[in-house]
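**Fold tokens**
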Amino acid sequence: MSTTFWKAISVLAICVLVMLQSQAQSKRKKRMIQRVVSEAQSYLGAPYQYGGMSRAGIDCSGLMYKCYQSIDVKLPRTAKAQSKTGRKKNWDNVREGDIVFFKFRKKGEKWFHSGIITYAHRGEIRFIHSSTSRGVIESDLNAEYYRDNVKRFRRVIR
């Protein structure tokens, strides 16, 4: 057989190996996203508590911290610091597992808030967060109150 034939076989074998590795990484990434979202869902109904880190009471950044801790990713503890972690994303390419950050202003004060994207398809985006008035809930990101205060999206799972 010719040298060209063996070179072609070698290139084909390398391409197959790269494809298989990519598929394995993709499955691993999907499992990580599912785990983070599942962890967030397990907190639904938990009451809000400033600085809280448990199902007995948790704040928004504590929820992000605990969800990502479930896949051995350590996030900073505050929403403002978390908002600098990961890759920036925008409305058009947000996906499940991404974190959405908000910046609210009221009577001269401002504060950060965060939530984890649980569903993103054809413009419909839902997220779980710890609301100061309602505890851990799932909300529609397209609701005016949230949509108008989105500061940024971050992707921690690459």
User: Anything to note?
Assistant: The chain is about 35% helix and 30% strand. The chain has one domain: 3-155. The longest strand covers residues 109-121.
